[in-house]
Amino acid sequence: KNEVEQSPQNLTAQEGEFITINCSYSVGISALHWLQQHPGGGIVSLFMLSSGKKKHGRLIATINIQEKHSSLHITASHPRDSAVYICAVKNSGGSNYKLTFGKGTLLTVNP
Amino acid sequence: NAGVTQTPKFRILKIGQSMTLQCTQDMNHNYMYWYRQDPGMGLKLIYYSVGAGITDKGEVPNGYNVSRSTTEDFPLRLELAAPSQTSVYFCASWRGTSGANTQYFGPGTRLTVL
Asked: Is the pLDDT of residue B98 over 90?
């Protein structure tokens, strides 16, 4: 079983819809990252969270440490939000400079 | 800053050939990483380095080698290419201090082994 599980695997939305992508993990963590990968493109970091909530533009990330769960929300989605969204965790024990990645959620936003 | 750069962007190899994937960062980061990304799978760590002269294996090191002679460069070597090494390879770096939020990723190298 992967230590980091994302749902859904694929998500199709209409422009303007509110999007939620979920991430669950099974280990103790010191931080959780949300990353974005555009088709054929590189990977950029959106957020790093260790507690609570962060907001950047139309993107909101939340984390519940007790429930080992994080969500990434996109408000007023736009076709340019179409990408793979990846959740990754930094374990609190052992080597805390390594990340464990989820398989990603492919988001397609149609105009 | 150019950030993390990788060369080449694309490469086709024949089985048994060897090659080096180059990775350079200009942010003076201590930590550098090599990942591979296979379709439908999460990024897997191949090798990492915590500083010049120090490297260590990740989850999937077999068939690869690395070196870290300088802070800036972290090349990945494939000695005897196999079809199982067909993948997209990403290099990343991290400053390594507690206030440093994120890993910075290179644009990737798409490798096909035929």
From this structure: no
CB-based contact (8 Å) between A99 and chain B?
yes
CA distance to partner chain A, nearest, from residue B106 (Å): 7
What are all long-range contacts of B46-54, with beta carbons under 8 Å and residues at least 24 apart?
B46/B76, B46/B89, B47/B76, B48/A97, B48/A98, B49/B74, B50/A97, B50/B96
CB B43 within 8 A of CB B102: no
Q: Which residue has the higher pLDDT, B1 or B43?
A: B43
Q: Does pLDDT of A2 surpass 70?
A: no
Cβ of A98 and B58 within 8 Å? yes
Q: Which DSSP state fits B93?
A: E
Å from A36 to nearest chain B CA? Answer: 11
At B28 the three-state DSSP class reads: coil
Window 25-44 of A: residues touching B by CB (8 A cutoff) are 33, 35, 41-44
Judged by CB atoms closer than 8 Å, whether chains meet at A48 and B50 is answered as no
